[in-house]
Design brief:
The structure holds 2 protein chains of 2 kinds. By secondary structure, chain A is of the alpha/beta class. Helices cover about 40% and strands about 15% of the residues of chain A. Chain A contains 15 helices and 13 strands. Chain B has 2 domains: about 170 residues, Alpha-Beta Complex (Spore Coat Polysaccharide Biosynthesis Protein SpsA, Chain A), CATH 3.90.550; about 110 residues, Hexapeptide repeat proteins (UDP N-Acetylglucosamine Acyltransferase, domain 1). Classes of the chains: A alpha/beta, B alpha/beta.
Chain lengths: ~425, ~375
Amino acid sequence: MKICLVTAFPPSRRGLNEYGYHIAKELQRDPLLSLTVLADELDSPQPEVEGFDVVRCWSFDKLSNPLRLLKAIRDVKPDVVWFNLLFSTFGNSPVAAFAGLSIPAMMRLSGFYTHVTLHHLMDNIDLGHAGVRFPRAYRVAGRLATRVLLMANSVSVLLPAYRRTLMERYGGENVHFRAHGILSARPETPDFAQRGNPHHRILAFGKWGTYKRLELLIESFAKVHERMPEARLVIAGSNHPKAPGYVESVAERFRDNPYISFTGYVAEEQIPDLFRTASAMVMPYSSATGSSGVAHIACEYGVPIICADIPDFREMGDDERLAIRFYKTGDPGDLADCLCKVIGDLPLMQEMAEQNFSAALRMTMPQIIRQYLRSFDLHKHQRSLEPISRFRRLPGWVPSRSAIFRAATPRWTPWM
Amino acid sequence: MDVRAILLIGGKPEASSEHFTGVPLAMLDLLGASLLNRVTHRMHQQGISSIAVISEYDQFPDRNLSPDLRWFKAANGQFWRFAEAVFNDFAQNGAELIVVLRLDSYVTVDYEKLVQFHLDHHSRLTQACDNQGEALDLFVISASRRNDAAFIFRNILGRFRVPPDVFYLDDRRNRLQTIADFRRLALESFTGKTGIEPQGVQIRPGVWVAPGARIHREARIVAPAYIGAYARVRALAVVTRGSVIERNSEIDCGTVIENSTLLPFSQVGAGLDVSFSVVGFRHIFHLQRRVDVEIADERLIDMASTSATVRALSDMFSLALYMPKALLSNLREKKREIPATLPKAIQAAPPSLSTAAAEHQERADRHFAPELMAARRYGNE
């Protein structure tokens, strides 16, 4: 099976590049698959990740993306075109983003089987927190874009609530729910000797500046540190593309605080060390944009999670049976209490870590990718059997049945 | 000498399985002719003048069956009384010897030799055994011995007033208890083990085709195989591994028939793969799983009428009603509803996760006794 994966891809740092990389890595392992990554163009030339067939054929915020991608896909002639998408994957400007989101429908019209993994829905995003100037206009455009996305052959979303929304509000038919997955084939058993030894490291990881803010976390950390002097706060990750300079400004403000450290952008190979030594991970968000990739990485390393009480995250926790402690969104006192409770109670911390680890065992990347491949395979078989199914409806008296059969199914081979 | 025969189909308690969808196995075509047909033909050839068939079932249409065959359908419980009455009737009408055969198996019998043996031994009753010494439900009874016959019939061929003389046949008996036995008999016949000859012309080594059969030039027939009279194999179909396609059957385009039998008048739809099965009367019996399934979708498996007139008329009706039917079905078609909420089974927590959490809880609650010590048996720690 030939697959074209349309995604942001490292060394690009655009949204979902890590998830795209892990999908590609998993697909690449299957010797029966041929994978071509249709990735975003880099601002400056950099060496490609080794072992992947990457074609950089689209750019962020460019209106020519549909035509360029169509040409690239026609050159590859894949069986499946798989899009790994956010609403802002193809651009921040509404026109470029909308043009990009219409590509799956165009590919389907061109005769390619198109699958979209959609990481969030506009309906569930708090546009105020995301720093959008005209939220109502964005909302309308978002609904239109969602309808256009649903014109793909099939769509996967990462929360059951999203599936429900797409089916009930948009009348989507081929919508599947698939777990996010833990981005690795084998989760790492938590090593408690590395945690709280000598400091309890509280980790915050993400792209900061929009609905992920650090002020609340730092405020509550001050209270935690008063009660537990051995606590340290590690803030990892870079700025959100829409909030350039945010992390740097916060780092500058707390430059003199020895208990808070800023790591900046964390490369893929540094992630294990960062999570292995963390006693807990905090998600101090004001709203959600879908299933959290960061929470799944925490599960991969068996790290307890403390998270703002946002419905999407509650549902994710319930569905995947993750060990998450929720604090009242926007309440630094409650966050501090939660942190102290988890870090200060070793058996509870271990229990949460083990529960997250066992959840991770159920969501390894090979398992998730196998589900996708199975549905692609099923579709392929279904498509090859469709002409037969239509042919069977012909009544027996129709003359020249054999000739009609040969015309209807030119590539028919018996299943032997 | 006036020798007549009574052929019995059913009658014994174990005979309840000797049929496929209500048609006795003895009446089903096997490589072009039913066992009943083969037996009666052989009997006629070897001088048995009149044959009566007593059956628990209706007669399955078979044009090749001898027209002077007398057919009696015996209702439940009356079977052996019928047999007795027919025996008496034959005896009164001048028969000297009467051959009684229950069709629960197939074995090649030389009836001339059997009758000669009976006469040579001045027997009242002769029973045949196969070359393995297994007694068959095949007897020769002197017509004058009505009481002996009545005793045998009343005891369902199981007990005798006088011990019978035993005549040993040269062949092995092929039991026909189930449809799987029937299929095995067909396979063994291809290899010449049974004495059953396929009715048709051998067009290639191992491929027999009966008159009237139509095989598309793009169909593949792999030996050994048999295509019955007026059967039709359409383009890109494959018949392989000892498959038997009986008369008036039809294999639609692209279908593979592998190690299977299609009973008379069966129709198999396009693009299917039929393996290790017997197909007939809108049923499919899987030989390995021993499962019989009725197929309601006539586009997959169907059965044509046994009457040519009815077949022609039904095609004409189908032609006339095609357009109105298609319009009506399009109007009635309902959109398939997909539930927006996932089923409970999918939403429920995986058992492994709850077990892990529960185990942990249990571990946390447990208190070890202070004097308890654990050591590795072979360790140095």
